Structures are given as structure tokens and as C-alpha cells.
Amino acid sequence: MDNLGIISKYGYKCIAISAVLLIISLIFDLWFSFFVILFLVTLWIYRNPERLPQSEDSKAIVSPIDGIVEDIKKCNYNGRSYSEILIRSRIIDCGVLRAACDMEIASIKRRNGLNLHSSDANLNLLNNRATIISKNQDIILRISTSAFTSKVYLENLTCVKSGRRIGFIKDGKVCLLMPLNTRISVAKGDKIKACNIIGYIDE
Fold it and tell me: Measured on CA atoms in the order 89, 94, 97, 98, is the torsion positive or negative?
């Protein structure tokens, strides 16, 4: 199923529920204004804007989601060292997940956990999490849920172009692990949007 509409397909159920509540409130003349606002907010949360990568350079790394850069550091994963950018995506941000580069997805790992608030320092260790490993560019995406969502929605894909939609999360954190020779072009505290350049992999 394509996911190219102005509303993400992952929001259809929630939008349908809010629409039914709106109709019921209209019929019974009960809190109509509240349910109008609820319906509009639900549409906003699941918006699905069109985005294009800022660069077509094969070495460019783009942001996989809208949010705020919460941390930049070095880390280890499976015995290898990486540069890591941690992006916090709030419920007010667009939750569409996108490929950070041209990716050949080697595996997707899921782990069940808790639903802690996204500002919690232990979120990445304890919450529901999905890990996407790309074999061609040595890129890893770790996506953690938060209090407003219990699931990471992911497309069933193997090869994706930079900036292509790969899933959705309403609120949470995305850790982007890149090779150590990546020249990072963002700083802690920056507000970024999906498909904005955040770095280049040096030769």
C-alpha cells in the first residue's frame, strides 16, 4: 500500500475514531467544539508532507525525522564505533520516518519495552524499540517510542532511496549511527526537518 497521501496511512484508524466521535457529538449536541479540535489535531499529528533530500550526493546523510538534536557523541554498537546523532521527535513534529541515505536494509530488529516520556534519560534502554541496519553505507537507525505511542510503524522495504518514507512514529527518539569519518553539519539543540542534510561521509 502506498503512503503518499497528505495523511499517513498509519493514522487512518485514529482519524476514523475521532471522526466518529465528532459525528456523535454533533448528533447529541455534546462538546462539539472539543471534538472538532480533537479531529483537527489528529489530522495534524498524522500529516504526511512531501519532502525531497537537500542533496543527491551519495555520501550525504539527511535527517530521518523532524525534531531537535538532543545529543551528538561517539558510541559502540556490536563492537564497532560510530558517530551518533540523537534526535527527539515530539508529538507536534511530523512523525514520518525517512531513509537517511540510499539504504540496503540488511535487517530490522524489534524489542518490546515500556512507554516512558521522551525526555526520560532511560528511554532508549527501556522503551519499545526498532533497529534498522543498512549494509551498504554502514548506517544504523534506532527508533524508540515514548509516552504518546507504543509502536514504531515500519514499511516492509529492502532497498530505499534517500528521503523515502520508511515508517512513522508519533513521539519518541531516533538515534542515527554513522561511520566515524562522517562530517556532521548540525549541532546540539538545532531544530531540523526530515531530509535536511546533517552530514557527509568522507572518502
Answer: negative
What are the residue ranges of helices labelled H in the chain? Answer: 12-28, 32-45, 123-126
65 CB burial (10 A radius; 0-12, 13-18, 19+): buried
Its pTM stands at 0.88
Sign of torsion, CA 96 160 88 114?
positive
Distance in angstroms (rounded) separating the CA atoms of residues 111 and 168: 16
Q: DSSP letter at 66? A: S
Angle, vertex CA 133, rays to CA 171 and CA 159, nearest 5 = 100
Under DSSP, is residue 6 helix (H, G, I), strand (E, B) or coil? coil
Relative to beta strand 159-160, strand 172-178 is: unpaired
Going residue by residue through the chain, which has 203 residues, state the pLDDT in tens, using 9 for 90 and above.
456 789 999 999 999 999 999 999 999 989 999 999 999 999 999 999 999 998 888 899 999 999 999 999 999 988 899 999 999 999 899 999 999 999 999 888 888 766 666 555 555 566 788 999 998 778 999 998 876 677 889 998 889 999 999 999 988 899 999 999 999 999 999 999 999 999 999 87
Q: Report the candidate in 54, 90, 55 with the shortest Cα–Cα distance to residue 70.
A: 90
